[in-house]
Amino acid sequence: MSTRRAAVGTKPSTGVVPLRRTGTAQSELFDPRRSDVDEWGRSDRVRAFARMLSNPVYAKWFRAEWEGLDRIPATGGALLVGNHAGAVPCDAPVVMHGIETELARPVYGLADYWFRTLPFIGTLWSRAGGVPARPDNAYRILHEQGQLALVFPEGVKGPSKPYAERYQLQRFGRGGFVEIAMRAGVPVLPIAIIGSEETMPVLWQVPAVAQALKLPYFPVTANMVLLGPLGIVVPFPAKFRLRVLEPVTFDVPPDQDHYPKSRVMEESERVRSMLQEALRDMLAERRSIWFG
Amino acid sequence: MARRVLVTGADTFWGGRTIQALEADRTIDVIVGLGMEEPSVQWDRAEFVRADQTYSILSRLVRATQVDTVVHTFLLVDSSLASPRRMHETNVIGTMNLLAAAEASGSVRHVIVKSSGLVYGSSARDPATFDEETPRAGRPRTEVERSLVEAEGLVADFAGEHPTATVTVLRFANVLGDEIVTSLSRNLSRPLCPSILGFDPLVQFVHQHDVVRALEFAFHQKVTGTFNVAGAGRLPWSEVAAICGTRLLPLPPVRPDLAAAPLVRAGLFAFPPELGTLLRYGRGMDTRRFSDAGFAYHYTSAGAVEAFARQLRLRKNIGHPRHRYTYEHDVEQFFRHSPAVVRTPAR
To answer: Does the CA dihedral B332-B335-B339-B345 come out positive or negative?
Structure first.
């Protein structure tokens, strides 16, 4: 209240609150915000609430375990790149939850703008740190604001692939993520995730339903077969293991208009094979789907 | 050097207040205000000329007055105030006539155009923040956006053909203030304000005071190019409504315009198509280019909303101001041209 009175200047303040006048420097302007929603639509309070709700799932259901978390820098931008799997993928929330609780750094999850078109879900997605995956959005997050962004270059090809192809990395888009990291001058941190494929194994696809419902894909999952409609939202309790790999840096100047496509594709392929190799390594060590 | 200025849209808030701001500057010799209606604010020395909606009188006027600067504030940005046809006539044909007149006269060296963030549109594919170079995500779907995009295209062509002329395009965010009435501000001043169920978009505002200052700044600094003008930060629509003390009335996400139609008809609120998309996806603008050019804002987005809310509360407590200025042609002519009036220049 006192700051408000001082700022509008109804009368000179005699208290300890310094009198602020509008119209000096940009940072000094009176800015009476009521919510903590930032320019991306993310809200710390919503995130904290989401973390509180998802903590039992993270710690007790998936029992997520990390390796190499110290490779994620404490400050500055970095592009986190993971493998994407499970019909309704749990990997993004798990990664975001894990990094936010362990490192106390916000993570912006880049995803298809399609989420934005959904009432309620779109708003919640945005408040929880979801951002439409666009090069200019990513550049601002990584370069200008020095934050962490998470992206799954496989896109929908990851979660929609059948269980028979589990842990087989799909094509990494057109290498856009490499170009973004180059332009922003930030490292790429590959994160290999196992357990995600078994949370919601895709048995087969029903394109007609997807078309009718305007969904990117519509699978029949093992969860649906066992649990009925409940299977749409309940994942199996597979053990999650996440390994942060060596940061990949590119020896190119940032802020260029154009990067050679050959180089971009090459680096994209390098990250992809690093991830694929790590996945095979982790799976070779895994004794049980449920207990790791 | 003494400057001679023509301001279009002189009858609107934008033009009227800009003229008032320019009048204080004694280095400006001549200020001519062109408008369809009589001016709504009092001017000391600016001259008013009435025109039709396409400004067909322009070439004669510019030739006769030999103005060197044109401030084009007469672009309609609210489709609930004009028919699509009128919007096209005013925004596209009006701008075309203006630029043709400027070109033909040979005296015009600076053109300032008041455009709107509407040229970026509002869609799911949008980036969170538009800078001046970001192309819009899709073709314009509403007439107001289409006509503004077309008008800006004409201005860009003019700038390309006349590299020696200074052309400034200012794209304003949604304006809030006690003097300017838009469908957005009208909605926020009512007890019920529309929203779309399940959507809470981020919107950005600029205070009317900063609008006039921005036009004045562009006039004095002669900055070239396109600039976004918006207060820092952006707010969820729900927060805007909360600050203004209005309740949100959620419309169904499927065809909200159909659900809104009877309510609009009943006078409950305005729901033009461009507001429908804004209330779904919002819009954010990067304002660094204008700040870097030297413009200092007096209000952030939230500050503009709060200042607007204060005015609403004041209005609620004391009612609308009684004394409104009425333009009397004879009286104004007397003060400007009668030998009986003692004029003391440059006080």
So the answer is: negative
CA distance B119 to B16: 24
Q: Of B129, B197, B243, which is closest to A34 when you measure between CB atoms?
A: B243
Which residues does A24 contact at the CB level (< 8 Å), separation at least 6?
B296
Asked whether residue A290 is domain-assigned, the answer is no
List, in sequence order, every residue forming a beta bridge with A241; answer none if it has no partner: A65, A194
Residues A166 and A277 in one domain: yes
Query: How many separate domains does chain B show?
Result: 1
pLDDT at site B323: 67
Select from B299, B4, B263, B66 the least CA-distant residue to B176: B299
> Would you say residue A14 has pLDDT above 70?
no
A14 and A62 share one domain: no
Residue B341 reports pLDDT greater than 90: no
Give the CATH number for residue A230: 3.40.1130
Q: Write the CB contacts of B292 (distance below 8 Å, at least 6 apart in sequence).
A: none
B36-95: per-residue pLDDT in tens? 888 988 998 899 999 887 777 888 899 999 999 999 999 999 888 889 999 999 999 999
- DSSP code of residue B1: -
Burial tier of A169 (Cβ tally within 10 Å: 0-12, 13-18, 19+):
buried
The answer to whether position A38 is within a domain reads: no
Contacts of residue B134 in chain A, CB cutoff 8 Å?
136
CA separation (Å) from B93 to A59, B79, B87, B98? 64, 17, 9, 8
Q: What is the pLDDT of residues B189-242, one digit of tens each?
A: 999 999 999 999 999 999 999 999 999 999 999 999 999 999 999 999 999 999
CB atoms within 10 A of CB B100: 16
Structure confidence by residue, pLDDT tens digits, A27-37: 578 999 999 99
SS3 state of residue B211: helix
User: Domain containing A8: what range?
Assistant: 1-32
**Is the CB of A33 less than 8 angstroms away from the CB of B232?**
no
Residues A220 and A150 in one domain: yes
Quote the number of domains for chain A. Answer: 2
- How close B267 gets to chain A, by Cα (Å)? 27
| Residue of chain A whose Cα is closest to the Cα of B291 | A26
Q: To the nearest 10°, the Cα dihedral for A228, A230, A233, A234?
A: -90
Residue A232 sits in the same domain as residue A265 = yes
Do A220 and A141 share a domain, yes or no?
yes
Residues of chain B contacting A32 with CB distance shorter than 8 Å:
243, 302-303, 305-306
- pLDDT at residue A21 tops 60: no
CATH of residue B233's domain is: 3.40.50.720
